[in-house]
Structure formats: structure tokens, C-alpha cells
Design a protein that fits this description.
three-stranded antiparallel beta sheet, 71 residues, mainly beta
Length: 71
């Protein structure tokens, strides 16, 4: 699964870990480093990844609400 915002891309691997590329400040880096994510939602400048248990983590541009902390 691959998704994108205006400046970066994010993909989920088979084990649920996240790989990102593109603009560093808009989500191309600083994604969660653990695994088990089921899907990713993109906004204009950030991403939110969701696990099967409903826990979430956001990253990317602060204007896009991605501050890297669990939600």
C-alpha cells in the first residue's frame, strides 16, 4: 500500500512497517519505526498511520498536524 501527500510518499511493508520518501519536513522522514500498521492516511502535508488495534501515530509538517506523537 502506497499513499502520498503534496510533498512525500509513504508505504506499508508486508510486516506493517512504514517506508517514506520525499520532502523531509512533510513526511519523507520521521515516520514511526515500529511495525504492525494496517493503513496510512495522508493530509496535504502529513500522514497518520493506524494499527489494527486503532492506535495511531502522525508525522510530517506541523501545519498538517503531523507532530510524530501517538494519538
Amino acid at each position: 500500500y502506497i499513499t502520498a501527500n503534496q510533498w512525500a510518499f509513504a508505504a506499508i511493508t508486508n510486516n506493517g512497517s512504514i517506508k517514506t520518501w520525499g520532502s523531509d519536513i512533510y513526511g519523507g522522514k520521521n515516520a514511526p519505526t515500529d511495525s504492525g500498521y494496517a493503513y496510512i492516511v495522508a493530509s496535504a502535508m502529513s500522514f497518520v498511520a493506524v494499527k489494527a488495534n486503532g492506535s495511531m501515530s502522525g508525522w510530517g509538517g506541523l501545519w498538517g498536524e503531523g507532530n510524530g506523537t501517538p494519538i
